[in-house]
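Regression test case RT-17, inverse folding.

Input:
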C-alpha cells in the first residue's frame, strides 16, 4: 500500500515498484466535491544484472530500491560487492558493478567439505604460479581428496599434497600430467596442497572435492594385565597412562599418545607389568611375587631382592602363597643386606608359614629354582618399629627391683606406635 488520501491536500509524488498499480476511490451518500485528477507514467527499471560465471544471482525485481545479491559456486571467491541496489534518478543504475567469481591462488579452509580449483578454472591457469591451500579441521579428522578434473604440463607444472601443514610433513601425492589421479587420504587434521606452474604450456588445471572423515581410534589397551589404565579416550592426539599393581614393575613407557597416520597406532608399544627376578625395594610395605607370577616361575632362576626400610624398623614377612618344588626350589631370607648376615630361614614346598621378622632394617631374599618342576609364591612384607634391644640394669642404683624377672642383662621388646 502506497497511501490513502482525502481532503484538499495534494499528495506527494508516488513511485510504484511493481508493473501493476491498483487505485480504489470511495464516496459516501453526502457531500460531493470536484474529485481528483492524476497522471501516471511508467518508470524505467534498472537493467537486469547478469549472473556471474561460476555463480548465482538472487532476486528478480529491478525497480528503485530493489536489492539483488550474488553468490559463487564452491571453490570460487566473489570479487566485488555481494549485494547491489537499484538507485533512483533520471537514469536507472545499480550502485555497484556486477561482481565476478574467480578461482583463487591458494587460501585457507576449515569447512568439513569444499572444493579446490586451480586459478582460472575452468579456463587455463596462468604461468609462474606458486599457490598453497591449507585445510584445517578439528583434531581427530582427516581429509579425503577426490579429483574431478586434472590436467597440467607434465613434470614442470605439478600439485604436491602433504598430510600436514609444514614443509616436513609427509608427502602423500606429487601429481602432474593429463591423467586423473586416484583419491588421496590425508590422515592428519591439517592438509596442505601446493601448486607450481612454470613459464610455459598452461593447461586447465584441476578441480578437487574434499570431504572430512573421522579418524579411527587407537586400539583399546584393556584389559591391562597386572595393572590398570588411566584414561578412556583413545582417539587421535589423546594420551593415556599406565600403572602396575603393587609388586609388579612397569616395562616400557608409562604414557602413550594416539598418533595420526594411515592406521591408528600408539606412539610406543604397549607397556606391560611383570613380576621381575629380583630388585632393590625401599617402600615401607610391599609384595614380592615369584618371577612371572601369576604364571609359574621359570627354571634355573637365582633372584635376589634387597628390602631396606628406614633405620629403627624391623621387617615382618608373611607368605600368602607358597607352592614350590620341595627342597630343590626354595626361598632363603637373611637378617641383613648380604648372605653373610644371620639367616632367618629357608622356605620350600607348599605350606604357608607364620610371619617371621628381622631385627635389622634390611633383609636379603633369595629365590632359587632348579631345572625341573615350577611353581609360584607370593610374600608380603611391612616395616615396623618393633625390635629387641639389650639393656643393662645397674643394681647400684636400684635398691629394690620393681620386677623379680629383671636381671642384670635382660632383653626388652620395644613397640612403637604411629
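Golden output:
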Amino acid at each position: 500500500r502506497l497511501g490513502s488520501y482525502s481532503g484538499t491536500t495534494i499528495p506527494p509524488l508516488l513511485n510504484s515498484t511493481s508493473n501493476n498499480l491498483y487505485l480504489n476511490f470511495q464516496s459516501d451518500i453526502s457531500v460531493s466535491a470536484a474529485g481528483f485528477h492524476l497522471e501516471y507514467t511508467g518508470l524505467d527499471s534498472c537493467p537486469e544484472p547478469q549472473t556471474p560465471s561460476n555463480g548465482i544471482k538472487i532476486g528478480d525485481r529491478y525497480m528503485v530500491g530493489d536489492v539483488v545479491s550474488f553468490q559463487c559456486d564452491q571453490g570460487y571467491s566473489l570479487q566485488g560487492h555481494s549485494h547491489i541496489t537499484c538507485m533512483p534518478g533520471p537514469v536507472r543504475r545499480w550502485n555497484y558493478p556486477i561482481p565476478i567469481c574467480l578461482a583463487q591462488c591458494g587460501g585457507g579452509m576449515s569447512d568439513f567439505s569444499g572444493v579446490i580449483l586451480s586459478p582460472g578454472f575452468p579456463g587455463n591457469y596462468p604461468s609462474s604460479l606458486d599457490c598453497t591451500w591449507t585445510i584445517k579441521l578439528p583434531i581427530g579428522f582427516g581429509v579425503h581428496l577426490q579429483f574431478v578434473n586434472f590436467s597440467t604440463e607434465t613434470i614442470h607444472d605439478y600439485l604436491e599434497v602433504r598430510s600436514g601443514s609444514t614443509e616436513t610433513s609427509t608427502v602423500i601425492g606429487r601429481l602432474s600430467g593429463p591423467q586423473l589421479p586416484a583419491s588421496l587420504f590425508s590422515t592428519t587434521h591439517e592438509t596442505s596442497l601446493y601448486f607450481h606452474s612454470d613459464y610455459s604450456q598452461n593447461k586447465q588445471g584441476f578441480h578437487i572435492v574434499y570431504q572430512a572423515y573421522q579418524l579411527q581410534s587407537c586400539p583399546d589397551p584393556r584389559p591391562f594385565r597386572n595393572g590398570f589404565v588411566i584414561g578412556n579416550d583413545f582417539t587421535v592426539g589423546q594420551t593415556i597412562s599406565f600403572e602396575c599393581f603393587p609388586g609388579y614393575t612397569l616395562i616400557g613407557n608409562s604414557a602413550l599418545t594416539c598418533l595420526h597416520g594411515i592406521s591408528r597406532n600408539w606412539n610406543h608399544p604397549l607397556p606391560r607389568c611383570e613380576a621381575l627376578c629380583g630388585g632393590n625395594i625401599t617402600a615401607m610395605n610391599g609384595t614380592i611375587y615369584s618371577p612371572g607370577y601369576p604364571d609359574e616361575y621359570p627354571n634355573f632362576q637365582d633372584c635376589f631382592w634387597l628390602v631396606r626400610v628406614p633405620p629403627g624398623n624391623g621387617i615382618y614377612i608373611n607368605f600368602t602363597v607358597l607352592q614350590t618344588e620341595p627342597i630343590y626350589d626354595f626361598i632363603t631370607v637373611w637378617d641383613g643386606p648380604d648372605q653373610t648376615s644371620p639367616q632367618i630361614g629357608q622356605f620350600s614346598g607348599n605350606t604357608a608359614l607364620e610371619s617371621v621378622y628381622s631385627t635389622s632394617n634390611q633383609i636379603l631374599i633369595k629365590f632359587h629354582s632348579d631345572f625341573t618342576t615350577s611353581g609360584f609364591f607370593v610374600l608380603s612384607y611391612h616395616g615396623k618399629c618393633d625390635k629387641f634391644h639389650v639393656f643393662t640394669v645397674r643394681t647400684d642404683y636400684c635398691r629394690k627391683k620393681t620386677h623379680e624377672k629383671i636381671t642384670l642383662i635382660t632383653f626388652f621388646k620395644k613397640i612403637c606406635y604411629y
